[in-house]
From TrEMBL:
It comes from the Bacteria. It holds the Pfam family GGDEF. SMART domains: GGDEF. The keyword Transferase applies. Keywords: Nucleotidyltransferase, Transferase. The keyword Transferase applies. This is diguanylate cyclase. Residues 187-320 form the GGDEF domain.
Length: 327
């Protein structure tokens, strides 16, 4: 063997060695999607040898692959001779390989980015397609965990810690959005505001810890009865507020009466002592006469004031006559 031939054989050998040991997946397909090349990365993660898949249809060898999606990606590569790419945010993986990295063992499978490269013959015609698979599990998990942390921080910033209801700031933002929506659409929504009657007596008689238990008890009743579209919040102290979307005042009254009766018939157990209390409630249906969301709050608050002056443990609805009496 000549020296030149020896060098060429040596080059082919280390190229093949690199091809097999490189830490990315390399798959070469012909135009019929038959597998021509299957490197060591693909063998190690799939458990399938190159001998097992050589000249087999990719979709027959791996029936779990999304053939329609993959061909949408690869067909233009064959036709247009342009590279294509996919990232894990679009599709978590092409080949569903198990994740073996100890650092990211929380991931059930390998997250993958992929590059699709056209391979041409001497005439410049695309005869084959190379798919390069990148393991990006570490990056994906880090991003997912960061998003989860940010999501939780956002939730905490919007949540009242004692009741797990929306806090006043976030709830009022929701009311502002609902007010603007009603202003545009002229639909129906109703605002409900209520609080615990004689709450000071609960605090003075049993202590602030008992008062917190009463607040928490009322919050649990409210959460259990809210519909998916309702937006409840702790407005302040022992006061609560609910946006009843797409609800007129008559149906809002039914909701409010149900809450009032449940509270009246229940009790809080604190240090083996039964504490009973009632609530007063004010309702205000959206009106085009309201100039801003604060007017809507004032209307519901006016109805609450009347419920208090009429004897408490009552539900009252807002009318212009109420507004004049209160003022």
């Amino acid at each position: 063997m000549t020296e030149k031939a020896t060098i060429e054989v040596s080059e082919v050998h280390w190229l093949m060695d690199m091809f097999q040991s490189v830490d990315v997946g390399l798959v070469v397909l012909d135009r019929d999607y038959k597998i021509q090349v299957w490197n060591g990365f693909m063998e190690n993660h799939s458990g399938v040898t190159p001998y097992d898949v050589r000249n087999k249809s990719l979709f027959e060898a791996f029936p779990a692959l999304d053939e329609y999606w993959l061909k949408q990606k690869t067909d233009p590569v064959f036709v247009l001779k342009n590279r294509a790419f996919t990232i894990w945010e679009q599709t978590p993986h092409i080949f569903k390989f198990k994740n073996y990295r100890p650092i990211t063992s929380v991931a059930p499978f390998m997250y993958q980015n992929a590059t699709f490269i056209p391979l041409t013959d001497t005439m410049g015609e695309v005869t084959h397609l190379c798919i390069i698979i990148y393991d990006v599990t570490d990056v994906a998990i880090s991003k997912i965990e960061l998003e989860e942390v940010n999501k939780e921080l956002k939730r905490l910033s919007q949540t009242d810690r004692l009741t797990n209801l929306n806090n006043r700031g976030y709830w009022e933002e929701c009311l502002q959005r609902e007010f603007q929506r009603q202003k545009r659409s002229h639909n129906i929504s109703t605002l409900l505001i209520f609080d615990i009657d004689h709450f000071k007596k609960v605090n003075d008689g049993y202590g602030h810890a008992a008062g917190d238990e009463a607040i928490l008890h009322l919050a649990k009743i409210l959460r259990k009865n809210l519909r998916e579209t309702d937006i409840g919040g702790r407005y302040g102290g022992e006061e609560y507020a609910v946006i009843l979307t797409e609800t007129d005042v008559q149906h809002g009254l039914i909701f409010a009466e149900r809450i009032r009766k449940i509270v009246e018939e229940s009790h809080v157990l604190y240090n083996d002592i039964e504490i009973k209390f009632t609530i007063s409630m004010g309702l205000a249906e959206y009106s085009d006469q309201f100039e801003n969301h604060q007017n809507w709050i004032e209307a519901a608050d006016s109805a609450l004031y009347v419920a208090k002056t009429d004897g408490r443990n009552l539900v009252r609805t807002f009318t212009p006559d109420i507004e004049r009496v209160v003022k």
